[in-house]
Amino acid sequence: MTSGTTEVDVIIIGAGSAGLSAAKELTNQGLNYTIVEGSHRIGGRAYSEEIAPDVWFDLGCSYLHSAEHNPFVAIADDLGVVLGKEYGNFFDGDQQRFYHNRVQLNDADAAACREYFEQCNKAIDNAAKRGEDIAVSDTLDLDSPYAKTFMAHLAELCGGDIDELSTVDLERWVGGSDYPVLNGFGNLIAKWGGDVSVSLNTKVESIDWSAAGVRVETNKGTLTGRAVLITVSTGVLAANHIKFKPGLPDWKSDAIHGLPQGTESKIAVHFNEDVFGPDGRGYHHTWTDDDEGSSFEASLMGQNVAIINTGGRFGIWLEKQGQQAGHDFALEQIANVFGNDIRQSASRSIVTAWYTDPWTLGSYSHALPGQAHQREVLARSIDDQVFFAGEATHIDFGCAIHGAYLSGIRAAQEIKAMLK
Predict the structure, then answer these.
(1) Do residues 361 and 239 touch, judged by C-beta distance below 8 A?
(2) Contact criterion met (CB below 8 Å) for 280 and 298
């Protein structure tokens, strides 16, 4: 890519789910575009790595959440990608197990823990339905003996801690089944988006929207277009990695900072033998009086892999400690459930680092207390020149890849209406 005067209808920044769906929709609408991506690959926060031969770990999104509403179910079926539809209830309450101080809760205590989880979720929903966009922490009984594990669980689900999360934002989420992808969600996105021409390793440095049309400066030259569609994360926008000329209006900056990029840290551990046993498959919550605790998936689809999830401030802290610290923490969590003998069978681990990834600076967005309305604000264009898409702009599926996909289509249709 070099400097030139050729103008396209739309310049798309970012080749994740939102950018790719927008590109496909613009093609359907008869518009031309250029799509640039700073990374060496497409997919954004959908990325799969092979942790063992034919065993894939999704460092980013790993489930087709809200499967009954998720367009990637049909896309996967059309592409012949195998989904674990029979495992769609993996996160249901009766599938979860609880371990405190390395001892599994008895039936009565486990039932009480599940009841506490339900009460917390109801308290969040009730506050939101009353119009109280407050911190989740203000709704919970934090004196419960199960508060610690619920807080750790919510942090890894939302990427933020309970004092950082909006009740209204959480209540809006549309649930449903959760389908895993046998050979990796990231691989599914790469296959689906493989027919879109993308300029990789192309870092956007500035966007000039001071006159009619836009000029986008990159490390490979200048692009000109009638409009620009920005699909990068709120973390990248908040860090001012892209300069705007003129600067963004205050209402847009407020929306970006009201929807910070949260962090979920994931650690996959592969074992060279079955350490889980016939009854070990499940979703396990483990915490002690001395550590933060975590939730982890064991042998989801019959593979000898456990995936440990943490989030929020602890997830960020753990990421900063490095790969070995993440590996050691993961083994400790698994040993809390399956015993110390599992350690000698661990063959390899992969530790994510989304918080420091320069192309994301976090995992996915969450709304701060009082800021749930900012998703709609972030989605609004500026002067019919600068458009926005991405999971942070979707109300019902914020933080999810299908929310990003739907937002890309929405933005492409808005651009088409404007250019018409």
Answers:
(1) yes
(2) yes
Domains, the chain = 7-42+196-260+368-419 (3.50.50.60), 89-176+264-351 (3.90.660.10)
Q: Which residue has the tokens 């915490």?
A: 287
Other residues' Cβ atoms within 10 Å of the Cβ of residue 401:
29
How far is the C-alpha of 109 from the C-alpha of 153, rounded, in Å? 18
The DSSP element (H or E) to which 222 belongs, if any, is strand 221-230
Given a contact cutoff of 8 angstroms between Cβ atoms, the answer to whether 97 and 104 are in contact is: yes
CB 238 within 8 A of CB 365: no
Mean pLDDT of all residues belonging to the chain: 95
Coil, helix or strand for 378?
Answer: helix
Residue 124 reports pLDDT greater than 50:
yes
pTM over 0.85: yes
Distance CA 169, CA 129 (A): 11
Number of C-beta neighbours around residue 80 at 10 A: 7
Between vectors from CA 81 to CA 413 and to CA 85, what angle results, nearest 5°? 95
Do residues 105 and 115 touch, judged by C-beta distance below 8 A? Answer: no
H helices of 134-211, where?
Answer: 147-158, 167-171, 185-192
pLDDT at 5: 53
Closest CA to 258 of 124, 373, 398: 373
Query: Measured between alpha carbons, how far is 337 from 287 in angstroms, rounded to an integer?
Result: 10
The pLDDT of residue 2: 42
In the predicted model, what is the mean pLDDT of residues 103-128?
Answer: 97
Q: Are 184 and 82 in contact (CB under 8 A)?
A: no
Q: Which two tokens stand for residue 306?
A: 């456990």
pLDDT for 1 equals 46
